[in-house]
Amino acid sequence: MKSVSVAVLAGLAKFFSGATVRWVDCEPDACQRVYFANHTSHLDALVLWASLPKQLRSVTRPVAAKDYWNGGPVRRYVSSLFNVILIDRKKVKARNNPIDMMIEEIGNRDSLIVFPEGSRNPTGEMREFKSGMYYLAKKRPDLEFMPVYIDNLNRVMPKGEFLPVPLLSCITIGPPLWLEAGERKHDFLGRARQAIIKLKEQDSNEP
Amino acid sequence: MLTAQNFFSSIPSWLPLLQTWFDTSLLDTKTLILLVAILLVLGFCWVGSRLLRRQPAANLDAAIVRTFDNRVSAWLTICVLLAVTMMFGRIFTVVFFFFVSFWALREFITMTPTRRGDHRTLFWVFFLFTPLQYIMVALDWYNLYTIVIPVYASLFIPGRIAMTGDTKRFLERIAKIQFGLLICVYALSHAPALLYLKLQKLNLSSYEWEVWDGKPAGILLYFVVMVQISDTLHFAWDRLFGKHVIAPTVNATRTWEGIIGAAVGTAIAGMLIQLLLPVTPFTWYGAGIMAGLISVMASSGSMTMSAIKRDRGVKDYGTLVHGHAGVLDRIDSVCFAAPIFFHVTRFFLQRPETAPEMVRQLTGVFNL
Predict the structure, then answer these.
(1) B123 burial level (CB within 10 Å; 0-12, 13-18, 19+)
(2) How many domains does chain B have?
(3) CB A59 within 8 A of CB A30
(4) Is a pLDDT exceeding 50 seen at residue A206?
(5) CB spacing of A168 vs B107 below 8 angstroms
(6) Does the complex come out with an ipTM higher than 0.85?
(7) Domain boundaries, chain A
(8) Residues of chain A with C-beta less than 8 angstroms from the C-beta of B116
């Protein structure tokens, strides 16, 4: 029963977002990865998860905000279907460090979907990345960090709206990067952010 | 002599189910022959283009081959789906066109910059006006479906956007949404609406009107075929004889020779089809005039859509968001031709009990 609901959810997400997925210089793979993307809409996590190949969906876990996905029975049900790891944005302390929690949750099987900007940006301009991704990379240097550029999804469901408009969107996944030996936090985060910007520019430059 | 008529009426009686089903479908013998002919020609072109693509690209213009291949594949898909839906009935054809409209509108709005304030208006455009238009077509509510989008929706859109308080580029934004809805939904919905027309035809030997008893699919097929022929001829004339480019800023390959050649060629093709396989209620010259009209509208449709694309700086709607098929690229000519063809046909040929006084007077003047 759950598998049917999951398939329906993925189908709906793909239909409303009209998402096409492009893997640029990389391939879908079941190895442990961290997909990090620009954050423009509440649908980001759901659509990115839905646009992965079916076999990868069950082992890929989006990290999402607890305050949004726990708001109301519908959202709670939906978030249970696509295996989200809910993070409390408000009370981050050393004791319940979200990074440790993520690492514990994925074990040595699952992949993650993260939005290092922290919150959605209404203008579409990317914010600076929060440092969580750096600590994640430092604790688990074996993870592949995949840059993902999500285009047009903010128009499908902008901040503050609850009904989607079925426009077409595009998800571009780029080649992986890793934390270099001795690389500093600022450099790594800047490099990661630049990787998404590069995907965005490639996207608009092509004919 | 074994004619097509005999062949189909001699379907053995152990196939009564098939016969009944065929009778209740939108097709009859003539339209079926036309449909099979279209599919054969397109299938042949499709195989041809596949073979061309395999050729070493020495003496072929790769871009032309690719364009040809794209168009043939798209038209083949459209015609196969159309054929299948027509075998099952009008309602399926309407639903098919609904999906085409929906997808085309998605492409159009995706390409058009809208603002946050337009979000809820767009929601109603996609989930109220678009389905409503096709529901009204399926219910044959002519008086409503010709009015709802051009009047009600056109007034609702600016009103609703004004209430959001976002005035930046206001007029531009409402115009874009209105135009998208008008072209992708309103205009295209007139193609399946052809199936609901109740028409009469002119008997050329007695000069009297009589009820047209052909199957309605004939007129839709005729329309689709004419648009395809027009597109093909336009392309061919541009390449072979094109000298005077209409507007290089819009499209560097569209020429006056192309537009006129296509109109004349399509008119001749329309007459020939009507003479060989009378699938429409038109007289032979009527069929020619209608075909010419379709061709001119189809050409202006592609020109308009090209102009919009140039303005937005995209080459094809298909490459707008990567990997999408570009439905709007293929149906731009259909969208422009459909409402005009529908209205001219209805204006002159609807049955007298529903025809307006003006038409009765007109037909009197010309002693028709």
Answers:
(1) middle
(2) 1
(3) yes
(4) no
(5) yes
(6) no
(7) 2-205
(8) 122, 158
For the ranges A144-148, A185-189, B127-131, B359-363, the lowest mean pLDDT is seen at B359-363
Asked whether the beta carbons of residue B324 and residue A20 sit closer than 8 angstroms, the reply is yes
Does residue B121 lie within any of the structural domains?
A: no
Whether residue B88 is contained in a domain is answered as no
Distance from CA of A166 to the nearest CA of B (A): 7
pLDDT of residue A41: 84
Question: B171 Cβ partners below 8 Å, 6+ apart?
Answer: none
Q: For residue B150, tell me if it sits in a domain.
A: no
Give the residue from B179, B104, B113, B324 showing the smallest Cα distance to A169.
B324
Q: Residue B328: its pLDDT value, please?
A: 86
Q: Which residues of chain B have pLDDT under 70?
A: 1-15, 56-60, 314-325, 353-368
Structure tokens at B205: 């030997």
Partners of residue A12 in chain B, C-beta under 8 Å: none
Q: By three-state DSSP, how is residue A94 classified?
A: coil
Question: What is the pTM (predicted TM-score) of this model?
Answer: 0.86
Is B261 contained in some domain? yes
CA distance B276 to chain A (A): 44
Three-state secondary-structure class, residue A20? strand
* Range of lowest pLDDT (A134-148, A177-191, B21-35, B85-99): B21-35
Q: Give the pairing type, strands A20-23 and A144-151.
A: unpaired
CATH topology for A2-205 is Glycerol-3-phosphate (1)-acyltransferase (3.40.1130)
Q: With an 8 Å Cβ cutoff, is B315 touching chain A?
A: yes
Chain A residue with Cα closest to B125? A165
